[in-house]
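Researcher: Let's do a round of design. I'm pasting the structure tokens now; please hold your answer until I've finished.
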């Protein structure tokens, strides 16, 4: 048996490091990406700690709550654990609390002392305790507790579609974009170039193959978890699946566009992170962006993951039909056609 050579190991170690450092794009991105994430969160949160609870106050206009118009306990107003969200009217506030966009809704009119809570919300339970603890004993008896009318949406029913969408996003972008770049780097695409296969046919086959695997995985995981949690599907299950199909196609097409000319696996990895991480944090996968700066909410409309989740949650939690989500479906379909066509136009078989 040949003795292990540390000299060969050292030679390969140096060669791989030189390859990495010479790839200026990948080298620079490994330093730039953490800074971009930190700066992004600093802008979103205003440099402060991320607020844990969101309390809506109505009637309020603008982007901040004016406490001069409210009758909220002074200590509760100054709580660092609470972020107050202005709500225009009670109807809008009740809808937001029903779908876990806010944790508590307070009537800010001085003549009224009441609040609404979603009893199915774990955060609502905690923030209600904070409010009650900060009230003076006389006020505790006069303030009125109201529960959201109608069937409440469980937090798991709001949260789980986000996890499914996030998993689909990573699988779509990495399973298409990264793989095609690897094909190009190891010479597999050069051999395919000698065949009658066109770039559009190759990319379409990659997209269809990935979407088949995505939907197969999605259905297995969804129905398996449904046996455990008994999800409450208010709308059509077929329409719900259809929204994820369109979302998966749009995400795969973005991955194909990125891989059209990519040659560096390291740079492609960085670029995929640049695409996936903002969508993961800003498309309401884990938490609602209610109360975030308006410009942040506007940016989310450029992400196909946002539209997939909006459509899916409308169907599942609100019982929406196709007419109610046709705008989101159109945007996802348009994204697919644009990026797939662009990928076919830019595609290169060679490095």
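Researcher: That's everything. Go ahead.
Model: Designed sequence:
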């Amino acid at each position: 048996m040949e003795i292990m050579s540390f000299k060969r190991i050292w030679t390969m170690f140096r060669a791989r490091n030189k390859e990495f450092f010479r790839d200026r794009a990948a080298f620079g991105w490994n330093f730039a990406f953490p800074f971009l994430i930190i700066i992004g969160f600093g802008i979103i949160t205003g440099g402060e700690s991320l607020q844990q609870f969101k309390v809506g106050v109505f009637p309020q206009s603008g982007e901040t709550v004016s406490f001069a118009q409210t009758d909220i306990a002074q200590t509760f107003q100054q709580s660092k654990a609470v972020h107050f969200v202005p709500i225009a009217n009670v109807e809008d506030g009740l809808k937001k609390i029903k779908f876990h966009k806010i944790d508590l809704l307070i009537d800010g009119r001085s003549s009224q002392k009441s609040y609404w809570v979603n009893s199915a919300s774990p955060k609502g339970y905690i923030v209600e305790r904070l409010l009650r603890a900060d009230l003076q004993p006389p006020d505790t008896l006069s303030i009125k507790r109201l529960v959201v009318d109608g069937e409440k949406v469980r937090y798991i029913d709001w949260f789980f579609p986000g996890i499914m969408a996030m998993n689909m996003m990573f699988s779509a972008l990495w399973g298409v974009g990264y793989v095609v770049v690897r094909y190009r780097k190891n010479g597999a695409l050069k051999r395919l170039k000698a065949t009658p296969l066109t770039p559009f046919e190759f990319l379409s086959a990659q997209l269809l193959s990935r979407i088949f695997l995505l939907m197969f995985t999605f259905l297995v995981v969804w129905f398996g978890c449904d046996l455990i949690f008994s999800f409450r599907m208010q709308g059509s299950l077929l329409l719900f699946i259809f929204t994820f199909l369109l979302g998966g196609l749009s995400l795969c097409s973005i991955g194909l566009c990125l891989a059209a000319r990519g040659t560096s696996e390291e740079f492609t990895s960085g670029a995929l992170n640049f695409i996936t991480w903002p969508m993961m944090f800003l498309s309401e996968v884990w938490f609602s962006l209610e109360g975030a700066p308006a410009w942040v909410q506007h940016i989310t409309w450029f992400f196909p993951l946002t539209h997939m989740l909006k459509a899916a949650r409308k169907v599942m939690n609100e019982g929406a039909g196709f007419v109610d989500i046709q705008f989101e479906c159109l945007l996802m379909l348009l994204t697919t056609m644009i990026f797939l066509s662009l990928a076919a136009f830019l595609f290169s078989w060679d490095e």
